[in-house]
TrEMBL record:
A Pfam family matched in the record: Hydrolase
Single GO MF descriptor: hydrolase activity, acting on acid halide bonds, in C-halide compounds
Protein's organism: Pollutimonas nitritireducens
Keyword Metal-binding: no
Lineage: Bacteria, Pseudomonadati, Pseudomonadota, Betaproteobacteria, Burkholderiales
InterPro entries xref list: 2-HAD, HAD-like_sf, HAD-SF_hydro_IA, HAD_sf, S-2-haloacid_dehalogenase
Matching PANTHER family: HALOACID DEHALOGENASE, TYPE II (AFU_ORTHOLOGUE AFUA_2G07750)-RELATED (PTHR43316:SF3), HYDROLASE, HALOACID DELAHOGENASE-RELATED (PTHR43316)
Keywords for the protein's UniProt record, in alphabetical order: Hydrolase
Protein name in the entry: Haloacid dehalogenase type II
Gene3D superfamilies recorded: 1.10.150.750, HAD superfamily/HAD-like (3.40.50.1000)
Amino acid sequence: MKAFCFDVFGTVVDWRSGIAREAAGFFSRYGLAGIDPYEFAAAWRTLYQPAMEACRSGKRPFTRLDILHRENLVVALGNYGVDVAQLDTNALDQLNTAWHRLDPWPDVVSGLTRLKQHYIIAPASNGNIALMVNMAKRAHVPWDAILGAEVTQAYKPSPPAYTRMVEILGLPSKDVCMVAAHNSDLHAARECGLSTAFVARPKEHGPQQASDLEPTEDWDIVARDFDHLADLVLPKN
């Protein structure tokens, strides 16, 4: 393998805690103390796939994730009975960019820094370029390149999201390893000829998480975390 490409939301960063943290501040500012920030983070996230499916299905042109997130934010707040028209637009925009300020899991920076010594490392995310760059700058994530939906003009798990990424890297499909905490993402990548690596993130959805706790297929690599992934694939001295 020559390159490792990573799912980001859930695999690289803890989106649930980061969104809940910023939502809590927003709710406090506007006197919305009755909304649980973790519940809200999950509710906002549930609108993610349907919004992308509209682009995947051709019902709307490809639209970058920042815009989809902003539309979904209005819907999510409305579902909690919040009159968005009464809120400051700049504050809503700031909350929307909470996705740019998510924290990586503790093993991410050290593991990626080690992998970078021998392999190309890049996000294979549905996030847009500005989101990925801002996140990486803040969290010191050492990507070699920013890949993903805005580059490929396709949202995972649509096949072009993987095949165009491979074409951009100029590598054979099997030389590119998709790394994800989501079995469905790896299944789609394998169908496109990529190698696969599963890294479980049992806290992604909180203490009641019931999915993706273990690999559901015989992936090429199964690792505990990114440091373990580096241990498995880096040359031994």
